[in-house]
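Section 5.1 Outputs to date
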Amino acid sequence: MKLSLGFSPCPNDCFIFDALVHGRIDLEGLEFETVLADVEALNTAAFAGEADITKLSFHAYAYCASKYVLLDAGSALGNNCGPLLISKRPITFDEVASGDLKIAIPGKYTTANFLLGLACPRALDKTPMIFSGIEAAVLEGRFDAGLIIHESRFTYEERGLRKIIDLGEFWEAETGRPIPLGGIVIRRSLPDEVKDRVNRAIRRSVEYAFANRDASRAYVRAHAQEMSEEVMFKHVDLYVNQYSVDLGHEGRRAVELLFERATANGVIPASTAPLFLD
């Protein structure tokens, strides 16, 4: 059975899916046709129901939960790994909260944007753009501040930018839970046994990557653009962890809490669809 699979070219996703893509593990008779794209492009494709399986932001999941269900394997959750709001000039949190600043964001439906809305609900002057261009846009003065994700958290200081707030720390202080950033979802319409096979295959892929760390190096490097080796694996270490192997009770509860907070604040529509595989 051939299934379409979408994920980002970021190091954490390439690390997770290398063994699956290159047949290093038992796929239980499954084949995968992969599409690599920026997370907001993946979010948009999920809204249209284009992929059988896809990485997406947890924020975006709320808008397509009727079509997809979350797998237990492959997610990005963790501590001290949230999006950062950065600037070129000194800016206080109160200035951001006032709503008077122009902010570049990595996509309307990213979890990063949801967290910014939760922390600063009056900060509405936001412009979506590709995440990798946000640092340059702030340095050039096109925006007062930028919301950065992925490897940008390792490079912004070198480029002369400064942190205003770590939204992951904000979430953890508010909830005491790890921050849910992105997950892997699969079509609800697929047979349950197929969903289970896919979940097992992704879990094996993550476990293989941890046990054979160098095996994925070439695949991660091929999609890492100008990233240094050090930043590449800092990225992997930050976003791939025990929750990527299996959400477990703690991971599931963090995702549930994100949905509860977002629904209560009117950020996402209420959904009656079960969030997780049985």
